[in-house]
């Protein structure tokens, strides 16, 4: 097995983008677990020698999982979000965790604007309307509009700011709520998610997942968003109380939602799938070939830099 770092075994539980995977397997002695006929046996045999892990988010990485790998030094995650990794448990075992910030920001922000426009102007529904031949029977119903509306960004990190910049170009006013007020933007600051929902018409969720943000969008926030309100979630399903969202949509407490992420993904509640005004996407915020390859490059760069003794490139905070 060719390897630039003999003895540095890397576990790859799930497939990575093709270019990144090719570089990884050229550089390291990599165990591509999904290719193994008996995965449990392959994992058991390799576990004592694994020093690096290229994670994709599909596997929960907690203390029980980490304890399988006594020589593990680095978890290189494909993705900016790492709520599936117990970073404290990793740190306690001397394992560094890296993510892929920066390289996916524009892609996710572009996808967010697409979802937002689809929700406001009901573009997928218009497409279905034409395909069904309904146009010959009359016009498509008039939609809501972006005009004169306020976009609320919940979580003004790199992705939140990229969304806000794009929304400004669409003529939207911007408000935001963040753990702390930012002094590098002139957007209106709301002191809480409820205040933000009161101040805006379109609420975009762009904060990290994890216990601290679980269900920060619940019944009170949705009520505050109001009957013309639109919720867009491109962050993590865990930030939104799904039952409260379903109830708010069914009762007309908000107008519609565009959702790229779900608490139980890839399972999406039947109630959401049944609502024709709701826009649903299968967690595709960063899912272009170019961006996923850039993310995979950063995974490989982190592993390579670590294995060569130069330290991780993008360790998580
Ligand atoms: C990916 C993401 O879907 O970066 C993140 O946090 O959620 C996405 O970009 C995921 O990480 C791919 O494995």
Describe what this molecule looks like in 3D.
The chain is α/β, with parallel strands linked by helices and 317 residues long. It has two domains: 9-103 and 289-307, NAD(P)-binding Rossmann-like Domain (Rossmann fold, 3-Layer(aba) Sandwich); 105-280, Rossmann fold (3-Layer(aba) Sandwich), CATH 3.40.50.720. Helix content is 36%, strand content 15%. The chain is built from twelve helices and twelve strands. It has helices at residues 18-27, 39-46, 63-66, 87-92, 105-121, 123-131, 158-169, 193-199, 219-225, 242-250, 270-274, 289-307, and strands at 9-12, 29-32, 50-55, 74-77, 96-98, 150-154, 173-177, 188-189, 202-205, 230-233, 256-259, 279-280. It has a seven-stranded parallel sheet, with helices on both faces. A five-stranded parallel sheet has the order 2-1-3-4-5. Strand 9, helix 9 and strand 10 (230-233) form a beta-alpha-beta unit. Helix 5 (105-121) packs across helix 7. The mean pLDDT is 97. Bound molecules: 2-keto-D-gluconic acid. The site of 2-keto-D-gluconic acid has 10 residues, from loops.
